[in-house]
Amino acid sequence: MALETLFLPDLLWEPVITTALREDFGTGGDVTTQSLLAGQPSLRASFVARQAGRLAGLPGARLAFSLLDKDTRFTPLKQDGDHIAKGDVLAEVEGPASAVLGGERVALNLLSHLSGIATMTGQIVEAVEGTGVRVCCTRKTLPGLRALQKYAVRAGGGSNHRHRLDDAIMLKDNHLALFGSTIPAALKAARQRAGHLMKIELEVDSLAQLAEALACPYGPDAYLLDNMTPDMLREAVRMVQGRAITEASGGITPATARSMAESGVDCLSLGWLTHSVTALDIGLDITTA
Predict the structure, then answer these.
(1) Which of 43, 70, 83, 208 has its CA 20 to 30 A from that of 283?
(2) What local confidence, expressed as pLDDT, does residue 4 receive?
(3) What phi, psi does 139 have (nearest 5°)?
(4) C-alpha angle with apex 4: 115 to 247, nearest 5 degrees?
(5) Domain named Quinolinate phosphoribosyl transferase C-terminal: which ranges (predicted)?
């Protein structure tokens, strides 16, 4: 995947990195490095993959050092979105010990976490290869990390669902319960509120709800088919007949993703891609001092 398709401006990386560095430095800074290596002029270190996966987060790793010392040199040897093997050198950093060792943990935390997201996304994408299905994340992101986590999903070959509540109207079960009326009435109210560029998605958890919505002249642009079996998804796709996007969500794992995708839905949405993945093991090795 070309790096250009994964662009995320420093404006979105920097607040996260700055907060993480402040959290790590406290009020006294890196007292260990100050005690032992205060006179160390410069050192060089390499980011090394301890296991295979997909890479994401190099721009954030770079900022973890440059925000501490603008003259620190960060040289990427791989690109975000690349498949990486155990032992691959991903990037090199060179600069004062205070910057390299001070930014090490923040850089590794972010790089490992985002690469874990990209790796798991890539596994799901590979599992459904050939079906034409998009693998999507959700808004189930860690507070403050949404833009970065959704970037990592794209690095793994996936797609993004809504970024924010104002991206689209999404009618879920709680909305319908509190609205206190029928699905057609809710869709009509949503359509009257939506601008001409605003999409509407309706969550349904039964084929009966889907049939009710399909009979409505104010139909949604997409249906979220929640916690349905592959057979139910297949019937739902047949009922929709291409009149709206169909999205399967709930209970999707690497083992079930293929059968869900083969139902004919357009998208699979997985919240755990951002809230529950395991970090990819990446280390920082000192190469010269």
Answers:
(1) 70
(2) 43
(3) -85, 10
(4) 65
(5) 117-285
Q: How far is CA 266 from the centre of its chain?
A: 19
Nearest Cα residue to 158 out of 6, 16, 3, 49:
6
Name residue 216's amino acid. C
The pTM assigned to this predicted structure is 0.95
**Whole-number pLDDT of residue 289:** 62
**What type of residue sits at position 128?**
V
Q: Is the dihedral of CA 51, 250, 153, 267 positive or negative?
A: positive
Handedness of CA 25, 48, 140, 162 (dihedral sign): positive
Decide: residue 271, CB within 10 A, 0-12 exposed, 13-18 middle, 19+ buried: middle
Closest of 54, 163, 50, 47 to residue 118, by C-alpha: 54
Distance CA 42, CA 34 (A): 14
Q: What's the residue count for the chain?
A: 289
User: Which residues lie closer than 8 Å to 242 by C-beta, 6 or more apart?
Assistant: none
Residue 254 and residue 128: Cα distance in Å, rounded? 9
Give the pLDDT confidence score for residue 34 in this predicted structure: 86
CA distance 107 to 100: 10
Beta strands in the chain (DSSP E): 43-49, 53-54, 73-76, 83-84, 89-95, 134-136, 169-171, 200-204, 222-226, 245-249, 267-269, 282-288
Q: What is the DSSP string of 263-279?
A: TT-SEEE-THHHHSPPP
Residues designated catalytic: 105, 140, 172, 203, 226
Neighbours of 231 (CB within 10 A): 10
Containing 167, the helix (H) or strand (E) segment is none
For residue 47, give the DSSP letter: E
Which residues of the chain are under the pLDDT cut of 50? 1-4
**Spatial distance between the Cα atoms of 174 and 171, rounded to a whole number of angstroms:** 8
